[in-house]
Amino acid sequence: MGDEVGRPRVAVVGTGLIGGSILLRLHEAGVPVAGWDPDPVTRAEGRRRGFTFPDELADAVQGRDVVFLGGPLPSLPQTLLTVAGLTDDRCVVTDVGSTKAAVAEFAGAHGLTGRFVPGHPMAGTERAGLTAALAGLFVDAAWVLCPSADGLVPFRSLVGLIVDVFAAHVVPMSPGVHDSVVALSSHVPHLLAGSLAGAAADSAVRDAVVRLAAGSFRDGTRVATTPARRTADMLLANREQVLRQLAEVRAALDGLTEAVRADDLPALVARYERARTVRLPSDHTRPVRRRFDLVGDPAEELAFVRSVGESGGHLTGCTVTGETVTYTGLRPADAPA
Asked: Where is the Prephenate/arogenate dehydrogenase domain (predicted)?
């Protein structure tokens, strides 16, 4: 499949900030791409900008090799089912939602794991909509992919597309590990930002707080300006993992609180020194390279690619030649081999 020069034909369904940025980058790279959004105003804006933006979803996705699914988290399963019914079985489908276990389970229940690869580009801003799209949003960003054993063929093609066109770091993970990781790295920080900003909003000295707010307050509350419904959908979609990780954060906060209450300088210093090592991680990496037979055990290939991502590394390439596939990547120098 592909156009006359071998480029994949792509569609982006749901063209908010993330979907719109994917669309914009593909368009700039010369990849044949069509967009579609349920909002007619967004479709009109897309056409005004020179993109292919049909009014009917079927016209956007039929005949495409790859379809990216965006839009609100609660709508993604039904969108997946609809797009799968409109496209050829060879069409690769991936999504950009911020939780993965539920949509992966849904895909499995509907026999779609052979063509659907759950995805999550870890990039964004506080803005929303196609007008906020940025072609360079994903450069050097982590882009999680969660393939299943029978989804390695579409996974390989997505690795090449994401690395070559978006210059992103492909991070393979299982859906469950992804949801646990993003609960602590992304979702709980949204809770903390909302709590801090909310406390300031309710404070008797609110105006003075805002006037004197420096980097620490601005950095700590930046994501509180994310559209509220988008944040709420994200938190509720990953509720179990968010609550589990929030309990750990509360325990750490209780420890800091007790050290302040006890006027315990050594305890405070020790806790912040430990925190500093995570905030400023080592940049020492080592290359990885692994080749697999295409007719070999898919479980072995799946275990390898997941191990790269779940150890803090990422893939830098995937090449299929003859009867083999070769992966290249980087992982932390101290990660297990």
From this structure: 8-290
